[in-house]
Amino acid sequence: EASDNFKYIVSVTIQEKGAGLHHSATCHWDPTADGSVTVRWDQALNMDVVITVFALAL
Asked: Which GO terms describe its biological process (predicted)?
């Protein structure tokens, strides 16, 4: 469940499997309260998916 105390920023990259990919994401934040997670999902037959979620404290 999402918290009302955070602002969430989501970035999703979907591309054809086998194509080259360099993925980079950055955010200016408070390291004691904010965070991020990046997940690569490559189980689909013909695509790669990279999802990054930033959680920024309000």
From this structure: microtubule-based movement
Q: How distant, in Å, are the alpha carbons of 35, 50, 51, 55 from that of 9?
A: 11, 14, 11, 7
Could you read off the pLDDT of 8-41 as tens digits, one per residue?
999 998 888 877 877 777 777 888 889 899 998 8
Q: How far apart are CA 1 and CA 31, in angstroms?
A: 22
C-alpha triplet 18, 35, 7: angle, nearest 5°? 100
Q: Does 26 reside within a domain?
A: no
CATH number, position 40 = 3.30.1140.40
The number of folded domains in the chain is 1
Model pLDDT, residue 53:
92
